[in-house]
Amino acid sequence: MNISFHPYSLRLNKPLVTGNETFEERSGFILKSFIREKTFYSEIAPLKGFSEESTQEVLDWLIKNQSQIKKNLLEHDWIMDVPFASIRFGLDSQRLQILADADGKPLHKFINPNAPDKVKINGMISLMNPIEAGEKIEHFLSQGITTIKFKVGIKPSQEANIIRIFCDKYKDVTWRLDANQGFAPDDAVHFLNYLKGYPIAYCEQPVLAELLDDMARVKQESPIPIAADESAYSVDSVLQIINKKAADVIIVKPMTIGAISEIQTVTEIIQQAGLGLTFTTALESTVGRRLVASVASAFSLSENDYHGLATSYLFAQDFDYVSERIENGHFLL
User: Does domain 118-332 correspond to CATH entry 2.40.30.10?
Assistant: First the structure.
């Protein structure tokens, strides 16, 4: 088996401004293995503001442990001892692809034989430019995507009015909000109450990730359900969210959780707690997006769940190692 990793940096079409970060490019590592005359790809890409590890820490670990990766790539127990979640995700998804191919199955079917071959997806847009936002809504609708997420928490009063206009114009769309920790607790409550009565499924991470008591209060006082995103980065963190009753929905970014078995554990915990579950990318390249789609297919609590996979349009450039097809509002596997 020949294994190598390759650093990358992909430019975005324009800066992506969130409630607490601005992203102009996405960097990480593509892990490539060649076995049985086939090449397999996975991605290792910690995301600032979400991952506990940095890109530099990942690079240092990969350089130091190249020989161990080649020796132990197919050993689940060894992967579980790796200290960084993004590396565990990249290594374990690579391991499982190799095993799935040997068994003659695609990754999602190898993880879960009952997994569907397509996943419903939501779109995501910025409200910084209302005209562009309207054009992007039309684009998503033309792809059959009828659940759309707005980035909020940057210019709240402007955003709230734009959201109401779009809600009134597009009656058949279900909306989601993503604040990326952009609000103080009282401001979040005020903002969400201003949107009471509109078809908004939930608001992601209205307050700082560590303020679970404040998020629980926002949840209690908001007419709109609350989703935990940046707060949900590990098995323990998800348990804390549930214990604090701080969210109605958990957003799972596989890149921040770790190995596939860890992701499975998280989804089982969420299901047992009776909460909603949405899988989303962490702005990965097409390699990572397909892996996240496979995980979403394998572990969704319902085939009617919509997942955050429609982010390819954000990139000015991307890889062509793997295919990506979106049809009728679904990511096809």
Answer: no
